[in-house]
Amino acid sequence: MVSFTTWCRYLQSKAQYTIDLGYKNHKGGHVKDNELMDFIFKHFTNGKMTFLHWTKGEEMAPTIDAKGATLLVRRLPIPDQKRVYVGDVVVLKNPEKPDDYLVRRLAATEGYEMASTDEKDESFVLEKDQCWVVAENEKLKAKEAIDSRTFGPIHMTNIVGRVLYCLRNAVDHGRVQNSPFSMQKDSPVLEMELDVDEMVKSHKA
User: Fold this and answer.
1) Sign of dihedral through CA atoms 69, 194, 189, 35?
2) Which of 65, 77, 99, 134 could staple 20 via S-S, CB 3.0–4.6 A?
3) Sign of the CA dihedral 170, 171, 173, 174?
4) Helix, strand, coil shares of the chain as percentages rounded to 5?
5) Catalytic residue among 9, 59, 74, 193
6) What's the structural domain count of the chain?
7) What pLDDT, on a 0 to 100 scale, did the predictor assign at position 205?
8) What local confidence, expressed as pLDDT, does residue 117 receive?
9) Cα–Cα separations (whole angstroms), residue 198 to 52, 97, 166, 172, 192
10) Last residue of some domain: 30, 47, 64?
């Protein structure tokens, strides 16, 4: 049974999510002034903060199985430094193929100085709203990893969500290790919206 504290934390998170979602859609011209409150109320009462995403590939092994996995992802309408943190595993739009999505770990955000192991490369500082994402499979070469080492810094708005849970198969699944702050913030969302049976049904492997 869900505790009262968890309910309160979940509702607080959902309220912030729906406000962020409303602001984003209003700013983008998708929601008019007189529609904003109805939009927020509708998504607060009926919408979910998470979605399922299927991914496959060696880039994030061993965190995510190379054979494929179904992920529970928390939506991030406004992916700024107050909502996503270094150390988080995120789903992002592929900057080279906008219709595709990648799963990578956030390694640095604006203000971080990036230095290469190659002395020929000059160090640089990530600019405002820029971030650096990396694959986790250390066996892959940089060109094979398809991350910021090949396509460079990306804008934070490329991030669409944070991965909370990974299902490799019906008996092998568990929470994804993110930054400590995100782990704490996501706990009530995970407790309220995680449905392993639904993930198993959606699993493609």
Assistant:
1) positive
2) 77
3) positive
4) 35, 30, 40
5) 59
6) 2
7) 62
8) 77
9) 9, 29, 13, 15, 14
10) 47
Specify whether the CB–CB gap between 37 and 114 falls below 8 A: no
Q: Which residue segment(s) compose the domain that 31 sits in? A: 1-47
**Active-site residue (options: 9, 74, 75, 104):** 104
- Rounded to two decimals, what is the model's pTM? 0.94
Q: What are phi and psi for residue 72, nearest 5 degrees?
A: -95, 120
- pLDDT at residue 121, rounded to an integer: 81
Segments of the chain scoring below 70 in pLDDT:
205
126 and 28 in a common domain: no
Please check whether residues 100 and 178 belong to one and the same domain.
yes
What's residue 16's pLDDT? 97
Which residues are within 8 A (CB) of 13 and not within 5 positions of it... i.e. 6 or more apart? 49, 185, 188, 189
Active site residue 105: no
Establish whether 59 is a catalytic residue: yes
Token pair listed for 157: 């708005």
The secondary structure of residue 27, as a DSSP letter, is H
